[in-house]
């Protein structure tokens, strides 16, 4: 990421090669058809903006920079576009970079908000939703469930063969994520294996490439990966040759993530400095508003669903 400090008085967008626009789509947490989901979200957004008092958002002006590195990019970009519509004098830059920790971008003044799944005691966190972490294997792998203790053993390298967890007779091929991604941080933290994933594990940045790798791995029984549950569930629903394992006998789905029975879940957090500027606070509030939560709910579990 280019080393530039934020100019609070600037009223034009930052031009950055790291500002990415994703074209991928995901299955909603609600399971509704995507076109109906988008229509409902934008109808809600339009109605909410129409009913807002004229000065509620109109006084906001300036630029806001949001940094991230995980699978939340399409959701954050959709929130950014909606926020700009609600606040016509603001510009939002979404900077997504697998090689730059989003928390560090906030701490060094390169961004106002960081998107992450793990809190930092030096920053203020606002939770805007939940996401499950799915354990992905090839469809031909007859392993159906696993315990968190076994998962910790697999991803720390102490369990190296599927037969050790009741699976097929083949070695386990580990697929992990870049260390800067909040998905990686949340997964390691929840299993108590921070810094212990073997260096021999294959590192893949995106959920889509993880799925393609699991499907194409030879032998197909071997791969073990972790992935955003929303993306994994979409792949299963579309008939891709993968499966999501039960964890501690609990199915990985919307109701179990929502009520906490499925333990591998991570919060979707917006982190800012302890004294955030007005735009950062306004964006966090917008993400928790009815139209913001509708956007979050297109892919993840909104806070209103707790």
Overview of this protein structure:
- The chain is of the alpha/beta class.
- It folds into 2 domains: 34-130 and 267-305, 3-Layer(aba) Sandwich (D-Maltodextrin-Binding Protein, domain 2); 131-259, D-Maltodextrin-Binding Protein, domain 2.
- Helix content is 32%, strand content 20%.
- It is built from 10 helices and 12 strands.
- Strands 1, 2, 3, 4, 6, 7, 8, 9, 11 and 12 form a 10-stranded mixed β-sheet that branches. Strands 5-10 form a two-stranded parallel ribbon.
- Helix 2 links the parallel strand 1 and strand 2.
- Helix 1 (34-51) packs antiparallel against helix 10 (290-296) and helix 2 packs antiparallel against helix 10 (290-296).
- Mean pLDDT is 84; it is low at 1-5 and 7-33.
List the helices and strands and how they pair.
Layout (H helix, E strand, L loop, with lengths): L33 H18 L10 E7 L4 H14 L3 E7 L5 H6 L5 E4 L7 E15 L6 E2 L1 H9 L16 E4 L5 H10 L10 E2 L3 H10 L6 E6 H9 L4 E3 L1 E2 L6 H6 L5 E8 L5 H10 L2 H7 L4 E2 L4
Parallel strand pairs: 1-2, 1-3, 5-10, 6-7, 6-8
Antiparallel strand pairs: 3-11, 4-8, 4-9, 4-11, 4-12
Helix pairs in contact: 1-10, 2-10
């Amino acid at each position: 990421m280019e080393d530039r400090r934020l100019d609070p008085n600037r009223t034009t967008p930052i031009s950055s090669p790291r500002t990415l626009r994703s074209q991928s789509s995901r299955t909603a947490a609600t399971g509704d058809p995507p076109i109906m989901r988008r229509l409902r979200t934008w109808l809600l957004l339009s109605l909410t903006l129409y009913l807002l008092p004229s000065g509620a958002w109109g006084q906001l002006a300036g630029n806001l920079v949001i940094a991230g590195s995980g699978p939340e990019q399409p959701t954050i970009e959709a929130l950014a576009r909606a926020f700009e519509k609600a606040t016509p004098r603001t510009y939002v830059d979404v900077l997504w970079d697998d090689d730059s920790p989003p928390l560090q971008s906030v701490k060094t003044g390169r961004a106002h908000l960081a998107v992450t799944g793990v809190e930092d005691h030096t920053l203020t966190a606002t939770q805007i939703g939940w996401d499950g972490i799915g354990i992905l294997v090839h469809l031909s792998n007859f392993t159906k469930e696993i315990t968190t203790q076994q998962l910790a053993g697999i991803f720390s390298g102490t369990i190296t063969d599927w037969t050790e967890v009741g699976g097929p007779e083949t070695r386990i091929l580990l697929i992990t994520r870049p260390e800067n991604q909040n998905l990686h941080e949340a997964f390691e933290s929840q299993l108590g294996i921070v810094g212990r994933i073997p260096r021999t594990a294959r590192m893949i940045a995106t959920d889509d490439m993880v799925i393609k790798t699991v499907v194409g791995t030879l032998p197909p029984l071997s791969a073990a990966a972790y992935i955003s549950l929303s993306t994994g569930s979409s792949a299963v629903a579309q008939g891709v040759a993968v499966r999501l394992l039960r964890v501690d006998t609990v199915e990985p789905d919307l109701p179990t993530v929502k009520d906490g029975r499925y333990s591998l879940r991570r919060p979707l957090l917006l982190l800012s400095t302890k004294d955030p500027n007005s735009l950062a606070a306004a964006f966090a509030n917008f993400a928790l508003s009815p139209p913001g939560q509708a956007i979050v709910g297109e892919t993840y579990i909104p806070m209103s669903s707790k």
